[in-house]
Design brief:
509 residues; alpha/beta; Spore Coat Polysaccharide Biosynthesis Protein SpsA, Chain A; 10 strands; globular
Length: 509
């Protein structure tokens, strides 16, 4: 039976994001309703081009705008989208299947939000209730970080892309705006009410966003997170694990490692296998130079992550995977954990391979590859098994390729390159190896084209000498001058970021 589904959007000055969203919704929904709350750009014109039903509403908070959109919708189901979302075709088909089979007494549906960071990698996965039945009992509440007034929702493994993490200036602006609104709401709410504690959680979250850019906000995170934890009620227990994450991260920034470990243990008493806490446990033990326990925690995080990615709800137990730990994981697997394994006296490459034989996880396999690369150890037998098992994963193939190159395994390297060309023809490493080969043959024009593409994708400063070599041999003096200026500006930016982090660390001392 065909479902009647309305898409609802609230927007203000979203001309940059809206075309991407509407293009992804086109032809899928029975109607697209857009409530504009005061745009002064081309938002309304763009909505008209896509055939949206457009309504105007004076801004009175997020819940008010969403409820107004619902009042104009005729669908049996209502699916809410933010302007910086995108719905892929495969996820739409999955959603139709699940919505057709949801029990009639379920009023709201939880979906997964795949947050996209600056470098277009996943910045974490969160969960939110953006789909609900068109039922007068269902209402949105809250001026900011609005929620549905339903007691429970039904989780389905459907992903929507969210691009809101791409602009750090926007994130800071939103956080400052939210803090102002939340402080106002907290003054008006009964301190014993559920809504008071929910808003207190979002205040902690907003300060946590700001603290990632400016260390002066870290103490505010600790202050309000501690207040929230001391006042946890059964009605707001859903949020407590997330507050622990923000608190532990803040304590680590302040180099209060013993306190951070204490909070890790408290959190694990509430939710044993919550991914973020396991990861933070590893970071804390690493700071305390307890390398055996650090490796133990990181391995647990990696194996749980492999399970989680196969089924996002398998470990949730009512909680969602909300932070940026997945974004951090490849860096830790390549740079931090192998070094920690080397410093440990209880773990070695053989133990990691034995664990993989039992689990067959992708991230665990990548860790073995990067650790073997760090130790210059031969794992060619394992590598062939790993590549064959994950031959459709660009991520797994990329790490395997780097190891094969490092160890000089020409046949395996060529095999992986051919596979990558099929599954991910735009993979940055393909440009690197193609450009490197062309340079060795003196084909400077081809080499420059491929190597500059690799550099644009990765910002790998190690490739700069090879690019300059191409430009010098091609006698492209003007292009060389421009390239050197670009590199100079980039290194200044990186230095400024590094200096700011150093200054923040000194300020905390």
């Amino acid at each position: 039976m065909a479902l009647n589904i309305s898409a609802c959007i609230i927007a203000k000055n979203e001309e940059k994001n809206l075309p991407r969203l509407l293009e992804s919704l086109k032809g899928k929904f029975d109607e697209i309703i857009l409530v504009d709350t005061g745009s002064t750009d081309r938002t309304v014109d763009i909505a008209k081009q896509y055939g949206c039903k457009i309504y105007h509403r004076k801004w009175q908070g997020f819940a008010d705008a969403r409820n107004y959109a619902v009042s104009k919708a005729s669908g049996e189901w209502i699916w809410h989208f933010d302007a910086d979302f995108e719905l892929e075709e495969e996820e739409w088909r999955k959603a139709l299947y699940y919505l057709n089979n949801i029990p009639e007494d379920i009023l709201a549906v939880n979906i997964l939000i795949k947050n996209i960071g600056d470098n277009l990698e996943s910045a974490g996965i969160s969960s939110n209730t953006f789909i609900h039945r068109n039922n007068p009992k269902v209402k949105w509440i809250g001026k900011v970080h609005e929620t549905l007034n339903v007691s429970e929702s039904y989780g389905i493994p459907v992903f929507v892309k969210h691009y809101g993490f791409q602009d750090s200036a926007v994130l800071r602006k939103k956080a400052l705006r939210n803090i102002k609104l939340l402080r106002q709401e907290l003054k008006e709410l009964d301190k014993s009410s559920k809504q008071y504690h929910i808003k207190l959680f979002y205040l902690v979250q907003s300060y946590a966003v700001l603290s990632s850019y400016d260390a002066k906000y870290t103490k505010q995170v600790i202050k309000y997170a501690t207040k929230f934890i001391n006042e946890i009620t059964d009605e707001t227990r859903f949020f407590d694990i997330y507050v622990y994450v923000y608190l532990i991260e803040a304590l680590l920034k302040e180099e209060r490692y013993d306190e951070a470990l204490k909070k890790v243990k408290e959190a694990q008493n509430i939710f044993t296998d919550y991914l973020d806490i396991v990861f933070l446990e590893g970071k804390t033990y690493l700071e305390l130079k307890n390398y055996n326990r650090a490796v133990e925690s990181f391995l647990k995080f990696i194996t749980l992550t492999d399970q989680h990615l196969k089924n996002p709800f398998i470990l949730s137990k009512g909680h969602s995977f909300v932070s940026d730990k997945l974004l951090n994981l490849p860096y830790y697997i390549e740079n931090i954990i192998p070094e920690t394994v080397k410093k440990s006296d209880q773990y070695n490459l053989g133990k990691l391979i034995d664990l993989w034989k039992k689990r067959k996880g992708e991230y665990l396999g990548i860790l073995i590859v990067t650790t073997a690369k760090e130790l210059n150890q031969d794992i060619s037998k394992f590598l062939n098994k790993f590549v064959n098992l994950y031959n459709n994963s660009p991520k797994a193939l990329s790490f395997a390729l780097l190891y094969a190159e490092h160890m000089g395994y020409i046949n395996i390297k060529n095999k992986i390159i051919k596979r990558l060309q099929k599954v991910d023809p735009q993979n940055s490493l393909l440009y690197y190896f193609s450009g490197k080969e062309a340079l060795e043959k003196g084909k400077y024009e081809t080499a420059f084209k491929d190597l500059i593409t690799y550099f644009r994708k990765t910002k790998d400063l190690n490739i700069i000498p090879k690019i300059r070599e191409c430009l010098i041999n091609l006698n492209l003096k003007e292009e060389l001058k421009k390239f050197d200026e670009e590199i100079n500006n980039l290194t200044k930016k990186l230095k400024t970021t590094s200096d700011n982090k150093t200054q923040q660390k000194q300020n905390r001392r």
